[in-house]
Write a structure and sequence with these properties.
The structure is a homodimer of 230-residue chains.
Chain A: H1 6-19, E1 28-29, H2 32-39, H3 43-55, E2 59-62, E3 66-69, E4 75-81, H4 84-90, E5 95-106, H5 109-115, E6 122-132, E7 135-144, H6 161-168, E8 173-182, H7 185-191, E9 198-208, E10 211-220, E11 225-229
Antiparallel strand pairs in A: 1-3, 2-3, 5-6, 6-7, 7-10, 8-9, 9-10
The structure holds a DNA duplex (19 and 19 nucleotides).
Amino acid sequence: MPGTLTWQWIAAEARRRIAARLWPPGARIPDEADLAAEFGCARATVNRALRELAAAGLLVRRRKAGSFVAAHPVRKATFEIPVIRQDVEARGLRHGYRLIVAETLPAPAAVQARLGLAPHAPLLHLLALHLADGLPFCIEDRWLNPAIPGVAGADFATVSANEWLVQNRPFSGGGIAFSAQAADPQLAGLLGCTPGAALFVVERETWAGAEPITAVRLTYAPGYSVAATI
Amino acid sequence: MPGTLTWQWIAAEARRRIAARLWPPGARIPDEADLAAEFGCARATVNRALRELAAAGLLVRRRKAGSFVAAHPVRKATFEIPVIRQDVEARGLRHGYRLIVAETLPAPAAVQARLGLAPHAPLLHLLALHLADGLPFCIEDRWLNPAIPGVAGADFATVSANEWLVQNRPFSGGGIAFSAQAADPQLAGLLGCTPGAALFVVERETWAGAEPITAVRLTYAPGYSVAATI
DNA sequence: TAGTGGTCTAGACCACTCA
DNA sequence: GAGTGGTCTAGACCACTAT
């Protein structure tokens, strides 16, 4: 009960009680008002602390019902999604970029579905290679909505679409998925690895409101991994 | 400016201004006090809104200096880390579990390093297979600190360590990493896939305070992916 | 209907850090 | 030294929902 910042101390104390089974899984914990009285602070302070625990997945809060210890403590991990150039430079390497294909054509059905577009709608297709110290780092295979302002005038041979979008077309939402894929001959050739090598794949779709912006598939050279703290 | 909840409306308005380059990347935005005056609300309400944007990576906030639009908008994605059984059942499949190996021996150097343990410290090593509708779903390769209370009495032939830990040893922190790996003959045999297949791998370490709990490597059958919204 | 969390206010003090 | 964000308070009203 020392002079630590109050809401963080309350949050830590609540974690302790959950860990110690004073508040067992599924149990209802005291009211915000009761806890405020116990800790000798304002209810808003307790609210702030419990909100954090709920965001961390340790509590489930329901109006009128109360706050409950999560029966199945689903942990959450937050990953940062950096721009590829920064990702390379953060490793102390020099970033390089090479545009391979730029064409406008109807997207494959799978891409159309991901973006919720009408069939046969022509999209700008970009295939590019990112390099780290001259070695293949990542393949950027992107489909871009040509209706986006500024796309027509952008020079994707100089600036990667990845970076152009970050700086020019902030998105409001989207989805991201991680998976593993074996290198087919084309990927192996571009990445300079053996065919069949296990590659880490990131697929991402982004929207600005209801309008689709882009769908991209990033295929990383062998050895890539994504890390976070939980 | 209609009757939406205030802090969420302020957060949305701030996002709009950032997207519209009214507040360009790197620029300093007005004080909390100024914004409160502009929006006609209390400073705490503005604070709540801007704190959300900072957590989302769109703003960088520094005392005395002010709040700045992030120069490189690092997006963040939050993934849920479910218990494997729930992961299977959420797909509408029946979960099965089979313990393959349980032994106590000094961990490999890599595992010792991940957990910060002294060399030659004996750990409980568990190798188990999770099934979905009878088919291999995931291999759980785990090293467990035997000093953890209750471990000695747990029956990991019946309950997976994954599930036992979640229900008995809440952790306070740790790390998680995603990567891709080719199936070696042993993995291929256990997962019923062809050797060389690209597999999705999750590695996780957890601690309770300063004490290491476990290091685990989850190798998923081909086709597995992890998704989130951003 | 009534209890609970969600939010807002107006004011205050503090901690950090830039100038 | 002074400006800014970080936090706390005491009180209030509202929204949702279990009963």
